[in-house]
Amino acid sequence: MGRIVYAAAMSHVLHPPYYEKNVGPHGKRMVEELIAVVRDMGRELAARRPDALVVIADDHLNVFSFDAVPAMCVRIGRSVSRMAQEGAIEFDRALDGLAERYPLHEDLANRILEEGLEAGFDFAASWSAPLDHAFLSPLTVLHGDRAMTPLVPFWVNCFVAPLPSARRCFAAGQHIARVVADGPWNVGVIATGGLSHFPELSLARVGESDPEFDRRVVGWMERGDHASLTALTTKELHATGSHELLNWMVLLGAVAPARARVRFFGEMGRIDLAALAWDH
Amino acid sequence: MSRYDVNVLLYRLKKDAAFRDRFRRDPMDALRAAELSDDERDALVRWNPRRLNELGGSLHLLLSIPDLGAH
After folding, report:
1. pTM of the full predicted structure?
2. Which domain holds residue B12?
3. Which class in CATH covers the domain with range A3-278?
4. With an 8 Å Cβ cutoff, are A87 and B17 in contact?
C-alpha cells in the first residue's frame, strides 16, 4: 500500500535577483531566508526516500496558450523538459542554467489521469508541456545536488478565467491521495505559488499584497480548517491576488485532515512568502 | 472575442522572436491581419501595457515579453 511520505507547499520564485530588482535588499534577504528553509525541507524530503513526487503548480501563459487552457492537467510520458524562453526577463530568468530534462514517474501519472477520468475528474493530459519556474525553481532548491525524484507534474489553471473552484481542487487532491494509497509507492506531494500578489491581475496593482488575508488562510491551514479554505471563492482569490492558492487546495485535499506546520512566513509587500509542511 | 485576440498577440510577442522584431520595427504592419478594436490596436501600437491589461491582456504576458516587459 502506498503512502504520502512528505507534503509541503511553498512560494515558487526562489530567485533573489528578481526580488532585489523589484523590491530591493529587503526582498532579496527575505527570499534568501526562505531558500535556506526550503533547502532544509528538501533534506527532509530526501530522508523519506520518495519513489515519486507529485508537483502541483500553475502555468504563467508559458505552456498553454489562450488556444486551450486546461482547468487541470496531468503531465504524462517518460521525461519533461525545462521551458525555453529566448531573451528571458524577470521571473523566467529563474530557469537560467537549470537542467534541460527531468524524469517523470510514468506509472503514477497514468494512474492519476486514468483513474481520475473514471472517477469523474475530466483532467487534461499532456505529453509535451514543459515546466516553467513554478515547478523548477522550488524543485531545484529542494533537491540541491541530489538527483531529481521522478515527477508527476500537475497543472491547475490559476490565471485564465474561469478558474476551477477551491472545492474542486481540494477534491482533486483527495483523488490523488486515493490513487497513492491504492498504489505501491512512497510519494511526496508539493504545491507551489503564493502567497498573495498581483491583486486582480491588475498591472496598476503590481507591488501590493494582502497580509491580513494571508495570515488568515495560513491560520486555517495550521488549524486544519479545511471547511473555511474550500469555501473561498474565486472572486476572493482574485481580489486578494491569491490565485495560486488553488494549487495549495489540491495538496490540502491530498493531506486532509492533517494540519500544517509553518516553516516560513514573510510579509514582503510585493508578495508574501511562505513554506508550510504537513505531517502525514 | 477580442480578449482572445489581444492575448494571442501578446503570447506571440513573447514566444516568437521574429514576430517581435517585426512588431518593434513596424507595429502597424505587424498587426495588419489581426482582428482588433481600434482601442486595442492603438494600445498595442503605442505599447501601453496598463491599457492592454485593462482591455483584458494577461498580466503575466505583459510582465514577461522580452524587451517590452511592463516592469
Report:
1. 0.96
2. 2-64
3. alpha beta
4. yes
